[in-house]
Design goal:
Shape: globular
Strand order of the largest sheet: 3-2-1-4-7-6-5
Structural class: alpha+beta
Distance between the termini: 77 Å
Number of helices: 21
Number of strands: 22
Oligomer: single chain
Largest sheet: 7 strands, mixed
Helix content: 25-40%
Strand content: 5-15%
Radius of gyration: 28 Å
């Protein structure tokens, strides 16, 4: 009989209605599940689960997958019921909320005790606003609603907050109800803290030490950890020029202080902190200062400062953020913090810190015989100890590294001594046929280096030296191998050999696109691609890492989701048709310049974080052959950086070869992730082979997802020829100038 009941239950489940696509996604996100995790559990493809959640054209699961999916959603709905607002007892009238960014005089400031209630209402309103699907090209995205409250300092008896959709049962973490950060400003002699979501708090602190105390004890600022074994993010305070003056700090740094990266140790404010038993990290009191007391048990007491007028927010990565009014700056940094993480320094530093936050070096062990837990290595992480500088493979380290200290002083290492995996900087003269065309069209790969990191197997521990190894494409490492025999005139594309004009293609093995002339060191993805093209590879020696894993997957997913969510807010959706996508991308940052800043910062986080894996000495009195500070980090991993760049360059070359084999078109120039083609029309659609809206499989595809391409810029062929003639440089890299056509100086290749 039980079998009959099971069959009936399955029959009912197979026809039971599922919640709408938006609700399916809300439930998954509320439980912290990724599309990949759900797909793996249900034994379907990631794209299948994504289709079930597509707002525009949701697909419906069938068969046993539908039964399992329905059960999953049912269980999640029990844990995370849809939000509802509970009526409150009679209370004083609450002023209406409004959108936009009001001035401080328009918004009533809140004491710390009032902020919790206001934050809940604001979070609910913001969630409801952002849940609507974005149009292809909307007007400026609405800014967070500003919530004001009466000036009562205590909550009303019986008042209950409404939890925003997508948050765990019980609402946001009560420790961090006011968000991850606050911008501290002074107006009319009053110190104000501008928080995310439009909250403004009164700050009673009269000195910097008391400001730190207030932040930790009353402000309810911070951010929950991103990984189970990790640590919560410390609260971030952004000090405006007025706040700096109020707390006795200089508004700008002197040239000497800029060079040192900090104010002098004898500054009166540093003495105030010392008297209050607060400490500074080794980098001292600079643009990104950390003020702390040694942790007691699991309790941390640390506040981070960001000082824009000391150039904490580099304009190359944060645009005009440093000049924004407090409320707008809180919004920009708040969006970045919620989608990436609370900034820990520059975008590069934050990119590196995000890796560690997602893969903490240690975790708590299982209880021992006495019931106590101990710190142990967290599998999949880089561990808590840096690799000994003298244990590094000589081929993987930059010049001046301690392991190279015995080399002659002016020795220049060649390809057979040094791993040189870098992004493309290649160009060639145009053919006569290309000169008859009218336009040069540049396409740019979205988040190219992030896409290169996705799914990449990298080393986690030290390398092992192997002589005459058999090449293994699944084994991360550096390989000394001769690839000069690979002929691009005849290569395998898929399973078929194709004939190409190899003289019009860059070599995939060197950043300058030059064909190798002998043995050289390459990362695993580069050697694997040579084999993919149909050629035998026989390494002479290798440094391989048997302890390996997909360390960067979570990092990629976090940054991808941040990028896609922000682009969607700007009206560029991931499901747009090619022509609609190009239209949506036209002037997208102008729709909401503040979110445009966030997009720039997310991209800089990717590139900067990867660059930090091979950080060079930064002053510090360093001399060649001596260790420098970055070598003491477990995250000083030039091998991982090389592998990501190798894979990114190979991914691009693979698309170029596929495009050439199908269309007979070859690139004119390549700079990192930008490729320039000659075409008869000004649009990418004038040379990309779309048929009935579908792109060439394995080739370039227009879209906003990482790895897909967007329009970088278009100039005329006459412009290209004139620029090259003016500078007497037939191989001037036009990809560098294709965006707006402005050429300020001759291309020196750097």
């Amino acid at each position: 009989m039980s079998e009959l009941f099971d069959a009936v239950d399955a029959l009912v489940a197979s026809r039971s209605p599922l919640p709408p696509a938006e609700e399916r996604k809300r439930l998954r996100v509320a439980h912290g599940l990724t599309l990949d995790e759900v797909a793996a559990a249900l034994k379907v493809r990631r794209a299948t689960v994504s289709g079930w959640e597509s707002v525009k054209k949701p697909t419906e699961p069938r068969g046993p997958e539908r039964e399992a999916y329905a059960r999953l959603l049912e269980k999640l709905a029990e844990l995370y019921p849809a939000s509802s607002v509970t009526e409150e007892p009679a209370a004083p009238a609450v002023p209406a909320t409004f959108t936009g960014t009001p001035t401080p005089t328009e918004a009533r400031t809140l004491s710390t005790g009032q902020a919790s209630e206001a934050a809940a209402m604001t979070a609910t309103e913001n969630t409801q606003t952002s849940s609507a699907p974005a149009a292809a090209a909307p007007a400026a995205a609405p800014r967070p609603a500003r919530t004001t409250r009466p000036s009562s300092t205590s909550r009303r008896p019986g008042a209950r907050k409404a939890a925003p959709a997508g948050t765990p049962a019980g609402g946001p973490d009560p420790r961090f109800e006011n968000g991850p950060l606050a911008v501290i400003d002074v107006e009319d002699g009053k110190v104000l803290a501008y928080c995310v979501g439009g909250l403004v708090l009164d700050v009673p602190a009269k000195s910097l030490p008391s400001l730190v105390d207030w932040t930790l004890k009353e402000a309810k600022l911070g951010q929950p950890k991103l990984s189970g074994p990790g640590k919560d993010a410390d609260p971030l305070l952004v000090l405006t020029e007025a706040a700096l003056e109020r707390y006795g700090l200089p508004v700008t740094l002197t040239e000497e202080e800029k060079h040192a990266g900090r104010i002098p140790e004898g500054h009166k404010v540093i003495k105030q902190l010392a008297r209050a038993e607060w400490k500074l990290t080794k980098r001292g009191f600079g643009p990104w200062a950390r003020i702390y007391r040694p942790a007691t048990g699991s309790e941390r007491a640390c506040v981070q400062l960001c000082i824009p007028s000391w150039n904490a927010l580099d304009s190359r990565h944060w645009g005009e953020a440093g000049q924004l009014p407090p409320a707008e700056l809180a919004r920009v940094l708040g969006v970045y913090a919620s989608r990436v993480m609370t900034p820990r320094g520059s975008t590069a530093v934050t990119g590196l810190e995000l890796m560690t936050a997602l893969h903490p070096p240690t975790r708590a062990s299982e209880p021992d015989a006495d019931g106590k837990r101990h710190s142990e290595h967290n599998p999949g992480s880089l561990g808590k100890d840096a690799i000994d500088p003298m244990n590094w493979p000589p081929c993987e380290v930059p010049d001046g590294h301690p392991v190279l200290k015995d080399l002659p002083r002016f020795h220049v290492r060649g390809p057979g001594e040094k791993l040189f995996e870098e992004a493309y900087d290649w160009a060639r003269p145009m053919t006569d046929a290309e000169c008859t065309l009218r336009h040069l069209v540049g396409i740019d790969v979205n988040m190219a280096f992030a896409a290169g990191a996705n799914g990449l197997n990298v080393g986690l521990g030290e390398a092992t030296h192997v002589k005459a190894p058999a090449f293994d494409p699944k084994l991360p490492g550096s390989w000394l191998v001769d690839l000069s025999h690979v002929d691009l005139s005849r290569v395998k594309v898929g399973k078929e050999w194709v004939e190409l004009d190899g003289s019009l293609l860059p070599s995939p093995f060197t950043p300058k696109g030059e064909r190798p002339t002998g043995p050289a060191w390459y990362a695993t993805p580069t050697v694997a691609y040579a084999a993919e093209l149909g050629y035998e590879v026989r390494p002479v020696e290798a440094w391989v890492r048997y302890d390996n894993g997909r360390y960067l997957d979570g990092w990629y997913n976090r940054l991808r989701d941040a990028y896609l969510a922000t682009m969607a807010d700007l009206g560029v959706d991931a499901d747009l048709a090619p022509a609609d996508f190009l239209a949506a991308m036209d002037g997208y940052k102008d729709r909401d310049p503040e979110l445009g800043i966030v997009i720039t910062a997310i991209k800089a986080t990717v590139k900067g974080g990867l660059g930090k894996l091979r950080e060079r000495p930064r002053g510090e009195g360093w001399k060649p052959g001596e260790p420098w500070r970055a070598l003491s980090r477990p995250t000083w991993r030039p091998d991982i950086r090389a592998a990501v760049i190798s894979r990114t360059r190979i991914n691009l070359h693979r698309k170029i070869v596929k495009h050439a084999s199908f269309t007979g078109q070859y690139p004119i120039a390549i700079l990192s992730d930008c490729v320039v083609y000659a075409a008869n029309g000004p649009s990418p659609l004038d040379f990309l082979p779309y048929r009935e809206g579908k792109p060439l499989p394995g080739g370039f595809k227009l879209g906003i997802n990482p790895g897909l391409v967007k329009h970088e810029g278009t100039q005329s062929v006459l412009w290209g020829e004139e620029v090259r003639e003016r500078f007497n440089a037939p191989e001037l890299n036009l990809a560098r100038y294709i965006k707006d056509g402005t050429v300020t100086d001759v291309d020196n290749g750097e």
